Please model this.
Amino acid sequence: MSEQNITQPAIESLLVLTARTTLVRSVSRTPLGDRAIVDVVSGTFEGPLLSGFVLPTGGDWLIRTAGGSRINVRLLLETSDGVSILFQYSGKACQIEGKPRIEVAGSFDAPEGHYDWLNNVQAFGLGVPIPEGVRYHFYRFS
Model:
């Protein structure tokens, strides 16, 4: 494939995801940094092609260092019509000019049917902490 075959992608909104979280446990001073396990207790997601709830079965296993945090999240989504979809994403959180910034990329595991198009999506998103947890705006290339 030559660079002449690469087209400029468009970016489109995929969904906005809001998750309520709670800290489960911290493990300090490991060789890789401070660890924290954060449970997702509830949430919602809304986008042009899907919406529903974040089920209370997922969480974030993160590593905190002096420069920021590394995020490793697994969530179980349930669409408004009752379909379960696994959503996994990872990335980093840091402070830029005194403001929190969370950058992530992830993928979906959806069953055959109405939402199987998600299996070909590489999602990327920006997040911000909110009082009850975190809110992400996820996008995809079209």
The radius of gyration is 16 Å. The mean pLDDT is 94. DSSP finds no helices and nine strands in the chain.
